[in-house]
Amino acid sequence: MFSRIARPASHGLIRGLSTTAQANARVAVLGASGGIGQPLSLLLKNSPLISNLTLYDIAHTPGVAADLSHIETRAKVTGYLGAEQLPESLKGADVVVIPAGVPRKPGMTRDDLFTTNASIVATLTEACAKHCPEAMICIISNPVNSTIPITSEVFKKHGVYNPNHIFGVTTLDIVRANTFVAELKGLDPARVNVPVVGGHAGKTIIPLISQSTPKVEFPQDQLEALIPRIQDAGTEVVKAKAGAGSATLSMAYAGARFVFSLLDAMNGKEGVIECSFVRSEETESPYFSTPLLLGKNGIEKNLGLGKLTAFEEKLVSEAMGELKASIKKGEDFIKSRK
Ligand SMILES: NC(=O)c1ccc[n+]([C@@H]2O[C@H](COP(=O)([O-])OP(=O)(O)OC[C@H]3O[C@@H](n4cnc5c(N)ncnc54)[C@H](O)[C@@H]3O)[C@@H](O)[C@H]2O)c1
Which GO terms describe its cellular component (predicted)? Predict the structure, then answer.
């Protein structure tokens, strides 16, 4: 069950969950009672890689933790409620996943969430920098293009910055691209892998269809319809939910997939590759998502953009302005924060 969840993005093979010797990870979910937090915590609870699952939120964690704690898997689940319990929830964490914050409503962009979510992410990552500075930090809260620079600046401020440990979770873009390409080509989506680079908002989401495995080709008009569908897929869900939030179930799946890949790599599994929005030297943007080889210490190697078509190069250059502005907004927020 759930073997599909842990599929490595790199080569599209279905695999079972790893049962390596060091399967004793402590994972903390911050924002665990939310639309993403609850199903994500359920998927994490189902993993033999995790020995301790700590759930933090400003509401409802005692109930969520009590509920999940009855599931017959080994992870010990503990709930923490409210700011005074945040430090305790982070003690000894190997991985912290953060889906805390408000989601979009119809008509909103991810950047419209900045005012609320920037402070939430800054507060939570300040606690991480103090109480689990060595942990891998996986940020789901939007706008990811700004919340990753925010997290980096917070860790720098506390003198504990390690760019190889800070990840913007963009996995849902890859999951969507795999699904849509498979639908169009009549393939099994579990065996499709489309790298998605850039950022996690609108035109900064850049699927590299030319690098898909298996190799697929589309006429230009179909490609020009497919790319915006992947870029706007989040908005498709926001509209369909009509005010009740944004993607939660598919995001929980994608978040769990990313965490399992990271844990596998931390446990010594070789060849684990995921795309993620990270500190990067690959383009003129100081943060950029590209395929990353993961290892025991987080990012082992940035695999870069690879060979792009002229069309993909154009998409990358058109994303730069928005990306850099969102990054600067995040950095400036922390510089001006008391
Ligand atoms: N990276 C992605 O691909 C992606 C995809 C979908 C949604 N998101 C983002 O994920 C975030 C969460 O979405 P959701 O649908 O779960 O929202 P939600 O409103 O259902 O849940 C958010 C949770 O965060 C909690 N929270 C708020 N402030 C907090 C704080 N200071 N400390 C701890 N917890 C706090 C809330 O109590 C709530 O339980 C949003 O920012 C959304 O835009 C990201």
Answer: cytoplasm; mitochondrion
pTM higher than the cut 0.90: yes
Domains by residue range for the chain, with CATH: 1-338 (3.90.110.10)
Which protein residue has the closest C-alpha to ligand 1 atom 42? Answer: 103
Q: Model confidence over 250-264: pLDDT tens digits? A: 999 999 999 999 999
Cα 334 from Cα 331, distance rounded (Å): 5
User: Is 200 designated active site?
Assistant: yes
Is the pLDDT at 13 greater than 70, yes or no? no
Residue 15 is labelled as binding a ligand: no
| Predicted confidence (pLDDT) at residue 198 exceeds the cutoff of 60 | yes
- pLDDT tens digits along 278-293: 999 999 999 999 999 9
**Is the CB of residue 100 less than 8 Å from the CB of residue 124?**
yes
pLDDT at 9: 40
C-beta 172 within 6 A of ligand 1: yes
pLDDT score of 338: 77
For ligand 1, the distance from its centroid to the CA atom of residue 250, given in whole angstroms, is 14
